[in-house]
Write a structure and sequence with these properties.
7-stranded mixed beta sheet, globular
Length: about 150
């Protein structure tokens, strides 16, 4: 019988997933894409947890983003199907990692080095700071690992 372990801590998830993937997609709400082995792209706003089975299968719980091509997408991606939430409010889904070929950002974050403190600053859209589903004040900042995250604007 297969048993499952649920992982919600990004620090533990990095043992199963690439470090940037786990740390960024679990800690920061954003606009991400998962290219599936079928060629379709699943649009995701956040990874909420990872499940590891005793047989080694890895499943990823996600919050789906809206379906359709993102604004300003490069023409090379126009032939792809962008899957998302099938209905308003129906955002919960689980992906099988074995079917994911590529994980990437669909919305650019500006990454800059800050020489004074040696850290890195990620300047992201306001929605990226909304990790609890509520309203996020425009001037709010939140620390993510050793990086300082600030709203753009």
């Amino acid at each position: 019988m297969t048993s499952w372990t649920r992982i919600t801590d990004p620090d533990m998830a990095v043992t199963l997933l690439p470090a940037w993937f786990a740390a960024r997609m679990m800690a920061t709400r954003g606009s991400y894409g998962f290219l599936l082995s079928t060629g379709d792209i699943v649009r995701v706003s956040r990874v909420t947890s990872v499940h590891l089975s005793s047989s080694g299968t890895i499943l990823i719980d996600v919050l789906l983003d809206q379906a359709g091509k993102p604004e300003g997408i490069d023409p090379a991606w126009h032939g792809k199907t962008f899957l998302g939430a099938p209905a308003v409010g129906a955002t919960l889904a689980t992906l099988n990692l074995a079917r994911v070929e590529l994980a990437f950002e669909l919305e650019a974050a500006e990454i800059t080095d800050t020489p004074s403190d040696g850290g890195t600053t990620l300047v992201m859209p306001e929605a990226a700071l909304d990790t609890k589903g509520g309203e996020t004040p425009e001037a709010e900042t939140r620390e993510v690992a050793t990086a300082q995250v600030e709203t753009a604007g």
